[in-house]
């Protein structure tokens, strides 16, 4: 009985230690965004996609529908799951140049191109098997020791049982460090292929090394899943400096877009005065003015904020995101008709055809409260969800727009879709069943409701 209880406890311990390295992988499926504070912004998404596009082409992934997702988190981090690259806003705001972000993206694309996620799952399964086999052998030795009343043999068995878990864990960490090194090397290849410098990558690792040194933390290199920053720099610096593109600089226009992005993130996340603080050592007046205009919209009088936005538009009349900010400011001033015009202009000028702008336009139309505008809102929001089916905000406004028009079945179906893509499957099924009773049987809408009702969450 005692041996059975010990075996059970060790089994739970082994599984917990080994599965912990795979929790992120197993929990980040199609509904990965459910527990992450995501950011949707047309300007930032377009810029980061422009950073990634040539790298994806170099890696042979340009046709794989790789999506970049922004996470509202101030720490410097990025990771991959499925066909998504997740990047923290802290990474974007900390990076002083586009090249630093491009280096991070090149590394993550290296993971995707190398199929590292699937291989890591296989390694986790292998490590679990190693731990279990070692534990069973240890239990057999422990049982033999108990049967023969040989305490020394029993101690050996216990050591084998517990040691197998540690050995398997170290094997898994070693594998992860190897994959990280491989992704670093792949990143260098993609940067060379796209005639870009690896200087940004090295700067990122040196930043990590400095932060680690300042923290005073002593790190056992065999107990972590990534190589230490010092080791990564040593492995990459010679190769990086041999590249004919090492001295390449970011194009000035790309740097301007990058600075505006940093100003926007600072204004939204760090409050009033944050833009001036961010650019205290940088005389980028354009980015500073943009950030201060956003701060005025967020914290100031709408009329004064609108004057700042109009000054931006006068200086750069073809920038779609200035018109987007004008629309945001007018919405705050309760002038939805004028806001809709501003958003319409932003959509017309936007080369990326962002679904986010369509949502803002639909929201402004909906706020006017008349059937004609509600019909236009439906059209805009339907375009948004067609381009971006997982945009839950769009479904919420689409449901309201259909409700204003008295189309209750369509309104409830939009609500069902919103709950479905939020991962709230129970409410999705409730709204889908309610929608079906009001929709024409056999229609595309009716069938969509049936698909939601029939959905079964995958196991594991």
TrEMBL record:
CDD domains to which the protein is assigned, alphabetical: M48C_Oma1-like
Residues annotated as signal peptide: 1-33
InterPro entries named in the record: Mito/Outer_Membr_Metalloprot (IPR051156), Peptidase_M48 (IPR001915), TPR-like_helical_dom_sf (IPR011990), TPR_CcmH_CycH (IPR056413), TPR_rpt (IPR019734)
SUPFAM superfamilies to which the protein is assigned, alphabetical: TPR-like
UniProt keyword list: Hydrolase, Metal-binding, Metalloprotease, Protease, Signal, TPR repeat, Zinc
Domain of life: Bacteria
Extent of the TPR repeats: 320-353
Protein name, as recorded: M48 family peptidase
Segments forming domain Peptidase M48: 42-237
GO MF terms, alphabetically ordered: metal ion binding; metalloendopeptidase activity
GO BP: proteolysis involved in protein catabolic process
One Pfam family it belongs to: TPR_CcmH_CycH
Source organism (scientific name): Mesorhizobium denitrificans
Stretches assigned to the Cytochrome c-type biogenesis protein H TPR domain: 314-411
Record-level GO cellular component terms: membrane
Cofactor: Zn(2+)
């Amino acid at each position: 009985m005692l041996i059975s209880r010990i075996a059970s406890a060790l089994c739970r311990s082994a599984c917990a230690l080994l599965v912990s390295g795979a929790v992120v992988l197993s929990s980040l499926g199609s509904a990965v965004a459910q527990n992450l504070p995501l950011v949707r912004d047309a300007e930032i998404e377009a810029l980061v996609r422009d950073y990634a596009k040539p790298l994806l082409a170099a890696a042979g992934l340009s046709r794989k529908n790789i999506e970049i997702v922004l996470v509202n988190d101030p720490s410097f981090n990025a990771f991959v799951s499925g066909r998504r690259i997740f990047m923290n806003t802290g990474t974007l705001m900390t990076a002083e140049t586009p090249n630093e972000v491009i280096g991070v993206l090149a590394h993550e694309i290296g993971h995707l191109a190398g199929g590292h996620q699937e291989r890591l799952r296989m390694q986790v399964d292998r490590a679990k098997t190693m731990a279990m086999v070692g534990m069973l052998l240890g239990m057999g030795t422990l049982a033999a020791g108990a049967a023969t009343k040989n305490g020394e043999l029993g101690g050996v068995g216990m050591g084998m049982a517990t040691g197998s878990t540690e050995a398997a864990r170290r094997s898994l960490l070693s594998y992860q460090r190897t994959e990280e090194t491989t992704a670093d090397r792949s990143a260098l290849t993609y940067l060379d292929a796209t005639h870009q410098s690896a200087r940004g990558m090295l700067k990122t690792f040196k930043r990590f090394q400095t932060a680690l040194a300042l923290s005073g933390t002593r790190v056992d290199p065999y107990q972590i899943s990534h190589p230490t920053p010092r080791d990564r720099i040593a492995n990459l610096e010679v190769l990086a400096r041999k590249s004919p593109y090492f001295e390449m600089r970011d194009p000035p226009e790309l740097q301007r877009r990058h600075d505006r992005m940093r100003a926007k993130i600072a204004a939204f996340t760090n409050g009033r005065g944050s833009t001036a603080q961010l650019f205290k050592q940088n005389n980028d007046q354009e980015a500073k003015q943009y950030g201060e205009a956003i701060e005025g919209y967020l914290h100031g009088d709408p009329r004064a904020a609108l004057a700042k936005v109009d000054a931006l538009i006068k200086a750069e009349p073809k920038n779609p995101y200035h018109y987007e900010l004008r629309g945001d400011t007018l919405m705050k001033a309760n002038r939805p008709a004028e806001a809709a015009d501003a958003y319409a202009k932003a959509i017309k000028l936007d080369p990326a055809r962002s679904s986010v702008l369509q949502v803002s336009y639909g929201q402004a139309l909906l706020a006017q409260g008349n059937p004609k505008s509600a019909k236009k809102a439906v059209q805009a929001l339907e375009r948004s969800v067609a381009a971006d089916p997982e945009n839950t905000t769009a479904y919420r406004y689409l449901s309201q727009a259909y409700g204003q028009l008295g189309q209750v079945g369509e309104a409830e179906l939009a609500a069902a879709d919103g709950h479905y893509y939020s991962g709230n499957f129970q409410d999705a099924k409730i709204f889908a069943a309610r929608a079906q009773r009001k929709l024409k049987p056999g229609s595309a809408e009716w069938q969509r409701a049936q698909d939601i009702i029939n959905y079964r969450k995958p196991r594991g």
